[in-house]
Amino acid sequence: MITKVEKRDVFEAIADPTRRELLHLLSETDETPLYQLTVHFEIGRTAISKHLTILWEADLVKRRKIGRETRYKLNPFPLKEVKEWVTFYEGFWNERMNTLHQLLEDETK
Q1: Which segments cross the bilayer (predicted)?
Q2: Digit-coded pLDDT (tens) for 84-102
Q3: pLDDT at 2
Q4: Comparing C-alpha atoms, which of 5, 17, 4, 28 is closest to residue 76?
Q5: Backbone torsion region of residue 28, taken as left when φ is above 0, otherwise alpha when ψ lies between -120 and 50, otherwise beta
Q6: Where do the DSSP E strands lie in 34-90?
Q7: CA 98 to chain centre
Q8: Which helix (H) or strand (E) holds 104?
Q9: CA–CA dist 107, 105 (Å, integer)
Q10: Is the pLDDT of residue 5 over 70?
Q11: List of residues 6+ apart from 75 with CB closer than 8 A
Q12: Domain map of the chain by residue range?
């Protein structure tokens, strides 16, 4: 098992559509118990719990126990790494598209 010291890669954690949907659901609330999250999916509670563990290992969610119930909360800060990566490539492709547009414009003159 991965300990909190051995963080899971954020990109790996968000690669799965179920985990992305869990993050979306958690972004709409302050804190949500596991049982309320499971109703949004066609997979079982155990599978949802495993997905949440992967998100926790990537520090994308915080969790706390209240009695027998585990509640989850979004921690959006690790997503900054994803934003920075996407922003770099957005600039990369914008530059390439501008160059292509200029070449096409020059060719039609």
Answers
A1: none
A2: 988 888 877 878 788 888 8
A3: 53
A4: 28
A5: alpha
A6: 61-66, 69-74
A7: 30
A8: helix 79-107
A9: 5
A10: no
A11: 59, 60, 61, 62
A12: 1-76, 79-108
Full-model pTM: 0.78
Angle between helices 17-27 and 45-57 (to 10 degrees): 80
Separation CA 69–CA 108 (nearest Å)? 66
pLDDT above 90 as % of the chain: 69
- Residues 23-76: tens digit of each pLDDT: 999 999 999 999 999 999 999 999 999 999 999 999 999 999 999 999 999 999
Residue 71 half-sphere exposure toward CB, CA atoms < 13 A = 9
Residue 4 CA: distances (Å) to CA of 9, 19, 54: 12, 19, 11
What pLDDT is stored for residue 1 in this prediction?
52
Q: How far is CA 101 from CA 70, 90, 93, 95, in A?
A: 53, 16, 12, 10
Longest dimension (CA), the chain: 73
CB 13, CB 50: distance < 8 Å: no
